[in-house]
Design goal:
alpha+beta, 4-stranded antiparallel sheet
Length: about 80
């Protein structure tokens, strides 16, 4: 490639806010569903970094159905 074409391509990428050789932002993050273990009605969607936490997520969260804090586990 000639230098002028290369500079045009790099310029377009930088104007769009992207970096030339960088990974996509958030490629390791996935949306997971958390379900209340008591009533199994309340569902919450949270982001999870799959690379750092490959096991299933468990969080203590407020469930409006049960009206108290309960354990919410990641569902399939």
């Amino acid at each position: 490639m000639s230098e002028s074409i290369l500079f045009v391509i790099i310029g377009k990428m930088l104007r769009k806010g992207g970096k030339c050789m960088a990974n996509k932002k958030g490629e390791n993050r996935r949306l997971v569903d958390l379900k209340c273990t008591v009533c199994e009605k309340h569902k919450v969607r949270k982001e999870k970094n799959v690379k750092n936490t490959p096991e299933r997520m468990e969080l203590s969260m407020y469930c409006p159905e049960c009206r108290k804090h309960t354990l919410h586990k990641e569902s399939k």
